[in-house]
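Feature request, filed as a ticket because there's no other form

It would be nice if the structure record came with a short human-readable summary line next to the tokens. Right now we just get the raw output. Example of a typical job, pasted below so the devs can see what we mean:
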Amino acid sequence: MVNSMLLWLLKLGKGLVVGLIGTGVKLSFTKRALGKVGDDHERLSGVLVNCYVLRHALNIALLLLAYFLLGKDVVVLLGVALGLTIPEFILHLRKLF
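Raw output as currently delivered:
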């Protein structure tokens, strides 16, 4: 029982690491896109649309990568999904308070 729980936590941790790396890449895409726009508000919407399409494509690519390369295990996919979403919620909560 303890070995299965440890294995479960290791798989979850592996998925979290992949998700957190993906979140870091997505945040760098957003910062780079906002840096390109600067003060030109006319280009802002187009650049942000492209940035968010790329971010969603990266989400799907990471989930597929985790599914095919890390194993067809629900725990790994759950870890990737948590790693992709939790840091963004934390950043939003920090802005609220």
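Something like this underneath would help us a lot:
The chain has a mean pLDDT of 86.
The longest helix spans residues 2-37.
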